[in-house]
Amino acid sequence: MKNGKDLVWILDDEWIDHSLETEIFQKNGCEVQVTRSGTLEEDTPLYAPYADGVIVQVGFPCHAGLIEKLDSCRVITASSVGYNTIDVEAATRKGIKVTHVPEFCSEEVSDHTIAHMLTITRRFPAYNKQIREGRWNPMDTLPIKRFSTHTVGLLGFGKIARRVAEKLKPFGVRIVTYAPTAPKEVFAQYSVEAVSFERLLRQSTILSLHVPLRPENRNIISYSELKMMPEGSFIVNTSRGGLINEEDLYQAIVEGHIAGASLDVLQNEPPDPHDPLLHLDGVYVTPHSGYISEHSLAELKTKTCKNIIDGITGRPLIKVLNPEVLDRVRF
């Protein structure tokens, strides 16, 4: 129950330390409670009816059944760029504004994306494996193409993809993108060629994904799309795991059509350790860590807190995902 202060409820299975958020909220007269998925059932009746704002961490499901119990809530914010674990429609029906943090880690994710590109095309995982096995043969991972001869395809051309394009320029690669909603003038600005989805697939020897996980984008890269790509191509995904049909990716790699995949995100996180995709020599995986740096985490937490404080106090929010929701009357 509430003690006269606004209550902020944090739903989080990822971060242990919430001292920065707690300090910010306490300075603004708010109480903070943190719930893990293991205690969600017992915590829900204690906090859900009284929470004025809810923070949802990456991967924590904020479903319709839970949202229906948020009787005092004015704002839900995803503490991330992505917000696919929040049922926005249910929040809209409940009259709760939903927001996220659309900009905090473009530098980190773009760096991570290029690191993945270089790691997989230069065959670092294969070289590392042979060294651990006591072998020393720089020739056993061929073919390796000169990096500047690659055509990098960017599926989507938002802020992160644009930073990737900027950072790839010195490498001399050709860059194409499929981004039908992006302003036409932006392509010339970044020296990127806009192409159709089919041409993106047929021309990209490195395909990098930069689109959100929405229903229309789920499994946007499946077996038929993978087979359109040039033989020996690579897939890089630092966006969301559900964009790729992982069974189809496994099949395309086993068949030898796709040379490898470098993934920061998976359909299931954490994955089943016995997932055969994880054990292919041509696959390199990091644990959804592209956004991580000391600077980005501090920025993310600070902006997340600002979303909640602004939402609770009725100040304008930077990005509302369901703007049709009117401000609720505070009692």
Question: What can you tell me about this protein's structure?
Answer:
The protein has 331 residues and is α/β, with parallel strands linked by helices. It folds into two domains: 6-104 and 293-313, Rossmann fold (3-Layer(aba) Sandwich); 106-285, Rossmann fold (3-Layer(aba) Sandwich), CATH 3.40.50.720. The chain is 34% helix and 16% strand. It has twelve helices and twelve strands. It has helices at 19-27, 40-47, 64-67, 88-94, 106-121, 124-132, 159-168, 184-189, 197-203, 223-228, 246-254, 294-313, and strands spanning 6-11, 30-35, 53-56, 75-78, 97-99, 151-155, 174-178, 193-194, 206-209, 233-237, 258-263, 283-285. A seven-stranded parallel sheet has the order 8-7-6-9-10-11-12, sandwiched between helices. The protein has a five-stranded parallel sheet with strand order 2-1-3-4-5, with helices on both faces. The chain is elongated and about 70 Å long. The protein starts with 5 loop residues before the first strand and ends in an 18-residue tail after the last helix. The relative contact order is 0.14. The mean pLDDT is 94.
